[in-house]
Amino acid sequence: MEVGSWALGIDTPHGGRVSLVGAGPGDPELWTVRGLKRVQEADLVLYDALIDAEALRRLTNARCFCVGKRAGRASVRQETIHRLMIRGAREGKRVVRLKGGDPFVFGRGAEEALELARAGIPCEVIPGVTSAVAAAELAGIPVTHRGLSSGFLVIAGHAGETFDAALNAVRPNTITLVIMMGVAVREVIAKRLQDHGWTADSRAALVCAASAPDQWVWTGRLHDVGAAEPPEGVPGVMVVGEVVQIREALNAELNHEDLRVLRG
Description:
5-stranded mixed beta sheet; alpha/beta; 8 helices; 5-stranded parallel beta sheet
C-alpha cells in the first residue's frame, strides 16, 4: 500500500502546507476536532461562501479570504484558488482550504488536491460531515431505513447528462435520492425523475439552510415539489424516497407526546 505525503500533511521545505478541511453543513459546532485544530493554527484560510465568516474569525487569527462560488454571482476562479494555495504554502504558510460539507463530495476537493500534488505541495484531506446525509438527517429523515430503503444515490441537480446516466443505473422507487444543488430547478428535476419512472406520488422533501437557526423544511409528494416556496438564496437539498415518511412519523409521535404532557 502506497501512502503519499499529501495524505500525511508533511510540511514543504519552507514549512508550509495545505489542509483541505470539510466544514460540515453549516453550524461550526459540527466541525471535526482535527478540522477545528487546523483552522486555529492556520496562517491563511480560504473559505467557501457557505461558511459562517463571523464564527470563523472568532476561531482563528489567520488571514481569512472568501473564495466561494454561488450560482448567479461573481466568484473567484478555481485557477485563482489553486494559485493562492500554492503560493501560500511556498511562502511557508499553514494554509486551510475550508470547504462546506465534505471536500470530496461535490466540493472540487480532489481537483485541488491534484493541483497541489502537481506543484509538489504537501496536502492533507480532513473529512467533513457531508450535507448529502446531514441535511436530511437534521430534518428527521434518514437516507436509509430498514424496510424502506437499503441505499441512497447522491447526485448533482445541475449535472445534465450525468444526471440522466445516474438515474438509468438504478431502478426507480427502490432507493433514496439525495439531489444537491437542485432546489432552484426542483420542478424540472421532478419531471425528469418521472420521465425515468419515479412515480408522481413519491415522497419528497426540501431542506434548506440545514443546521442553521433558520433551517427550512418542506415535505410532500414529487408532483407538488414545484409549488413549494423555499427561501431565496439559501442552499438546499432535495430528497426523494419513502424515507421522508420517517420525519412525518417522528412529528406525529412528538405531537402526541406534547398532547399527553398538556393533558397531564
